[in-house]
Amino acid sequence: MARQHSERWFSKQERLLTNEPMKNTRKYYCHILQFFKFAFIIPTVRALQYVRYANIFREQSTDYLGSSRAVTLTGAPGVGKTFSSINFAISLAETRWSQLQSDYILQSGMIDRWIQDGEIDKIISYRAIEESYLFYKSREEVGIPCLVSSIPIKDQYGRFSYTLTPEVPLQLVRLPEYTVIFNDESGLTQGANTSKTAGSNVRDFYRFNRHFGDFMFINTEQGSDQNAKYMRIVTDHNIRLRRQEWVMKPEVALWRLEKAKAKFFKRRGKGKYANRPEREQYIIEKLYYREMYLRTIGFRAIPYRYEQSEGNIVDGEHGVYIFPAGGIGQYDSRTYRNLYKCKDETIDIDIYRSLIVEENADPHKFDDQIAS
Q1: Which among 237, 209, 203 has a CA at the least distance from the CA of 72?
Q2: What is the CA radius of gyration of the chain?
Q3: pTM score, two decimals?
Q4: Lowest mean pLDDT: which of 40-49, 69-78, 148-157, 218-227?
Q5: Burial of 172 (C-beta count, 10 Å sphere; 0-12/13-18/19+)
Q6: 96 touches 102 (CB < 8 A)
Q7: Rounded to the nearest 5°, which phi and psi values hold at 67?
Q8: Is 70 helix (H, G, I), strand (E, B) or coil?
């Protein structure tokens, strides 16, 4: 009887992919330490590297934005804008949720006195905090408190972020107090083309964001000028990211994986599994989860530099963000795939027949559609 992976095995593999952010890295390098204990220098260097990166990550995650309340991460596709922002957003949401809980508990002990003394403003403020706290608390097992985002985000506990829709800046949907607002590719809905056409409700939402709900904003865009001016003027600074690097990669394990894949692909190409589909499936499952697991080991290093926002001068601070390789939240790196207008069309593209462009080719054939 052919071997098959059990449901328990699949569940274990999925759990490994969503472990506490640095658990897989610690586990892997602890194994390396034991394996190479006869060569003291190798495990010592790796251990020191792990401690260094782990400490940087922990220090950054407690205060990613400092005193800033609104930032835009910019850079070319693939530099880590969304990945970095999600780490920011989850960490900030945890901080804001702690603050909301603290303010609710402390102010709940003062509300009777405020009612007695007729402190109307304090009573109104407390009622908004109370409603916000009760909203997030009642959904804490399924939703990430204090996090609203334009793309789905899933944390290590399996909870999802709340949905950011265009109705939010239009002030048609109310957000709870202390919410962190993450808007990925923010120019899609609040682009520079809306700078002069946006209505007063949208403009006021950004202008008075601290008054309306003490909100915080994290945006991503490929260029610092792609957001509307009413967003840029309330942005503390842009954070320009450069190409990300995978550090402390599990080099030995990756090498062994590539050898195993090459061997399997070669045997598969020769038809070795033609009469053994169950065996082929068994190996594919092992290789797939091994590759996914190894991607969670190590850290991502992403160089950054603070840049000027609209009228806001910064000192050019720069450095390197360090994140666990798997991040502290899950998202689909191709979350906008369904926006591709021709995604359901049949693939039909021509092949060149010569090194010379044919004379009947018309590069201006679709000028009117491109310019529309």
Answers
A1: 237
A2: 26
A3: 0.87
A4: 40-49
A5: exposed
A6: no
A7: -90, 0
A8: strand
